[in-house]
Design brief:
Rossmann fold, alpha/beta, elongated, 10 helices, about 290 residues, 2 domains, four-stranded parallel beta sheet
Length: about 290
């Protein structure tokens, strides 16, 4: 019997002068493209002084591996590059290609100011305001405030409405969500709302699995929200299929587009919501 090959293991150092979110996103997007490789992430954030950088260099020397960097300060970058060259470690300054392209087009050098994307500007406070809005308008709450929404997500229980709204809030989008329950009235004014309304749906089998997990959590004392009393219908296959069909027909009757989230991540669902929002605003601009 053949022995399975040993999983390759590498160290990956992420060196940032800010929070490191950019590098985390790049690392997630790239490392998943490889097979059975164990990648040990070493995250070095808020590196803005030579003293802080020396700790990073000691870590790289102790556990060598490729380095992804978003350092802006030229002195720190030079020291990082020099040390990595001495250690024969590959270093990639991931912002360089984009910065160079923009400098060529704009015709001026970029300012070397670390963490500038996180200044407390209007965009930052817009995201905070959107987060407060989502909290206040989750699961059909504060219904009169729906008029202030940028988008309203509707769908049956456990169709990823809440996590999608929170993701959108991080983009500065005020997203409310309203549950669709057969035989219960929808919030007054939702049908006349002056923003996009988008339905979320998914396959019955996937929804049943999610709801069963939810019921197990509640049974274990981890209740975090209301649940329907008729829990037998909540996970009954025929009842769930009928509920989904009713919700889809309800959205269609109002001209609301729907997104099937069965095999979509929250990020992919949010991206599709943004596309539908843009299409809605384009139609409004053209008078349609």
């Amino acid at each position: 019997m053949d022995t399975p090959p040993e999983t390759q293991k590498i160290n990956l150092h992420l060196v940032s002068d800010a929070t490191g979110e950019t590098l985390n996103a790049i690392a997630r997007a790239t490392t998943v493209q490889f097979g059975p490789v164990q990648i040990i992430h070493h995250r070095w954030s808020l590196i803005r002084t030579r003293f802080q950088l020396h700790r990073v260099l000691e870590g790289i020397e102790a556990e060598p591996g490729p380095v992804l960097s978003t350092l802006i300060d030229r002195t720190l970058r030079l020291e990082l590059d020099t040390t990595c060259q001495r250690l024969n470690v590959k270093v990639v300054n991931v912002l360089d290609p984009v910065m160079t392209a923009l400098q060529d087009v704009i015709g001026q050098q970029a300012e070397a100011r670390p963490g500038r994307q996180y200044v407390l500007n209007a965009d930052y406070f817009s995201r905070i305001d959107a987060m407060h809005y989502v909290l206040a308008h989750d699961d059909g709450q504060a219904q009169p405030g729906l008029a202030g929404a940028d988008v309203v997500l509707v769908g049956v229980s456990r169709s990823s409405k809440t996590p999608t709204c929170f993701y959108l809030a991080n983009r500065g989008i005020k997203a409310a969500n309203v549950p669709l329950v057969p035989n219960l009235p929808i919030p007054p004014g939702l049908e006349e709302i002056k923003c996009p309304v988008i339905g979320l749906t998914l396959a019955a089998e996937a929804l049943i699995d999610i709801r069963r997990h939810r019921l197990r959590l509640i049974g274990g004392g981890a209740q975090t929200g209301p649940i329907r009393a008729d829990s037998s219908d909540y996970v009954d296959e025929d009842a769930v299929k009928a509920e989904l069909l009713w919700a889809r027909r309800f959205c269609n009757s109002h001209g609301w587009p729907t997104i099937d989230v069965t095999r979509r991540s929250i990020e992919e669902t949010a991206a599709t919501v943004l596309q539908l929002m843009e299409a809605w605003h384009n139609r409004k601009a053209k008078g349609n």
